[in-house]
Structures are given as structure tokens and as C-alpha cells.
Amino acid sequence: MYYFIVNPSSRSGKGIKLWETIQTQLNLYDIPYQVIHTTRPYHATKLAKHLSSDSKPKTVIVLGGDGTLNETINGLSKNSNITLGYIPTGSSNDFARSLTLCTRPLEALANILSSVATIQEIDYGTLQLLDGTSRRFVVSCGVGFDASICRTSAISIIKKLLNFFHLGKLSYIAIGIHHLFTEKTCHGTLILDDMETVSLKNLFFLSSHIHPYEGGGLAFCPNANYADGALDLCVVEAKHIPKRIFILLCSLFKKHRFVKGVHLYRCQKAEIILEKPMYLHTDGESFDEKVDHFIVSASPNDHYRFIR
User: Fold this and answer.
1) I want to staple 290 with a disulfide (CB 3.0 to 4.6 A). Which of 118, 178, 277, 295 is the partner?
2) CA 32 to CA 19: how far, in whole Å?
3) Overall pTM > 0.85
4) Can you give the residue ranges of every domain in the chain?
């Protein structure tokens, strides 16, 4: 039995049509399955929690974007016997890009159902806030510019309108350009593995990575490895707009690390203390409130199992 968690709104509202294509194939070959469509934020978390509430082995297949995948892994109990499959139908699909998963739904399904499919253990990171809130991530967690884009996209009326016409990606571009020009920087402190202290000056954004990419293919941490038990951090200090543009252009070719103001680190744990609150995201899912103090950490002794 295969269990599907489907986000019908993914890929600018095309998710439901993509699922219907998948469903036709499942029915054609008499493959047993159950499906539940997500209908609200964090619905996938609730569904995954229910599916992992016992110790029975299950295969749970997520059809959606990185955000739906994030919600799902946050619902899984750490001792669950769940193997995950992923049919990427989001806007960025950075998780799939890192694992070189097929983004064509029928081929992705065939890979998951294949008798020669392999199981890959994938690291994850954990975000902790001072109020006790914690959230896991499998792609990246960021504060500043990237998180502001995620936050604005989540509440944007224009994005909802463009999604109606299946043009959702245009909204991300427009919102990204807006924040490129308007994002405020701040100073702060970064503490690596409780040992090394780094001063942050005019912080534009800081992202911590399990995988190299975020934002639809920007390899901010090109050496990040999903199986090394560590976090890779990209710190960008850039107050002036021309420098921001130059850094982002360089990141398209993985050359940003040679630009002054860009710093890459590798660690097990990072504590970030900011002089003023900024927006925060995990795998593109934004928090409602800004934060000024949080911790991200790797989980070297714990993993999720994915079908490749």
C-alpha cells in the first residue's frame, strides 16, 4: 500500500491535474494506494503524524513542493518506520534538484515504484527558537532576504491572482526584485559550534543548508552534502544594492564565494543573534513573526529514508 499526500495547489494550481495523471496510472496497473489532499497550511504535518503514529512500515509519497515536503517531515515521529517518496511539483524543487530526482510526474512515479529503486538516507537540520518552538528542515533555513521573499509570497494577493492563471513563478521574481531593493540589513553575532564567534556587519541574509540549493536553483552552499551530518552556512553582508545584484548574479555560476562580504562556513551548530528581528524560513515556509535569536543544528545520527 502506498500513501499519497497531495498538495493540489502546487505548481500554481496545477497540482490537482498532475495528481489525476498519477491516479490514472495507479488505477491502470491496480497499484494499491490511499490519497489525502492537503486543504490548509500544516495539513501535511497532521497527516504525516497520523501515518507515523504506529511502528508499521509504510511508504508515503509526497506530491507537492519543498514546502509540502517540509510539512510532511515535521509530522513524522523520529522513530517511525516511514520511507518517503517525492514527486516534485513545486515552484523551486531544490530538494529534487540536489538529489537529481525527475520532475516529470509519471517518470518520478515510475522511479519510486521500480523494483531497482534505491533507499537514500538524508540528513536534516533543526531550527530552535528561544520560546521552545522547533522545526526541522531538509533543504535550507534562512533569515533576511530569502525569508522576506517567502513571507511576502505567502501573504501576497498578487501571487494568488497569478496562480489562478498558472503564472505563480512570476510573483516570486517580482517579490524578489522588490526585496532586493528594499531589504534592510542589520548587525549581529554568529556563534559556530559554541566555540568560534563571528561578527555580522550589514547582514543581508544568512542561510543554513543541508542541500546546496535554495530559491529555485541558487547554489548558495555549493559544497553542502546531504549525507555528511553537517550544516553549511552562507553569510552575505551587503548593504548596497549594486553589490547585492552582483552577488546574486555570481551565485548563478557558484562564484559568489569569491566576492567580498560572502562567507561560507561548515558546522554542527550555529547560534544567530541579531540586533533587530528579521523574517525566518525553513524550506521556504516562513514564520509569521520576525526573530532576533535562534539556533540551527545538524542531526548526524538521525536521518530520513527517501526512495531515489
Assistant:
1) 277
2) 15
3) yes
4) 2-117, 126-300
